[in-house]
Write a structure and sequence with these properties.
single chain, 7 helices, alpha+beta, about 210 residues, two-stranded antiparallel sheet
């Protein structure tokens, strides 16, 4: 998979503003570019459990899939985050299972679409690699310098009260002038920094362009 960028899980953070919202933070090998993805509470708990950060006695549907896979000799080979539309990430699971043709049994690869959070929860359990495309990184990746997002011409940030906030508000006219690539990048910044009002306005602008 040379055409893809391999990702690692950097962490999962709970929103202190909006109940039930978590941000899954993925990063590429150097750690300088991070990809924030909004996930639901159940998937967040499942991923955290598989990473050994929650009560190991809790059992999730993803654990049942592991048992099912072992019985039928199914191997999850990789998870690929392949598309980004209006802030929503689309993924597929690449797995290998037995294929019966006549009296011959051989391994065959299959690809199925999956919610990104479910795909990541399975990848952790199978210890399978997670990939994304360069295009998605260009659209939604956040570049970090010295542990904080790098400023650029699209938006400005500053540190206040130990938190990263926006200090240059975006008007509707500002959003209308921005490219779809910059809107997607700003949307992910807004989400990871819990600026949900701004995120909602950005998503509305992206929906208007469809």
């Amino acid at each position: 998979m040379d055409e893809f960028i391999r990702l690692a899980i950097r962490g999962i953070s709970l929103s202190q503003i909006q109940a039930g919202i978590y941000v899954l933070l993925l990063e590429e090998e150097s750690g300088r570019i991070k990809l924030p993805i909004i996930i639901e509470s159940l998937q967040a708990q499942s991923i955290a459990s598989a990473l050994g950060k929650r009560d190991p006695s809790k059992f999730f549907t993803h654990d049942l899939f592991i048992t099912f896979a072992k019985v039928f000799d199914i191997t999850l080979k990789a998870v690929v985050i392949y598309k980004l539309v209006n802030g929503i990430f689309f993924s597929y699971i690449l797995f290998e299972g037995a294929h019966v043709e006549g009296e011959k049994i051989e391994k065959k690869e299959h690809k199925i679409d999956s919610k990104t959070s479910d795909a990541v929860a399975l990848a952790v359990r199978f210890q399978a690699p997670i990939y994304t495309t360069r295009e998605i990184f260009d659209k939604a990746g956040i570049y970090f310098e010295n542990g904080v997002p790098k400023e650029n011409e699209t938006y400005e940030t500053r540190i206040e009260n130990n938190g990263l906030i926006f200090f240059k508000e975006k008007s509707q006219q500002d959003l209308e002038k921005m490219t779809e690539k910059d809107l997607n990048a700003l949307l992910n910044h807004a989400v990871i920094n819990e600026c949900y009002e701004l995120a909602a306005r950005i998503k509305k602008e992206l929906d208007r362009r469809e």
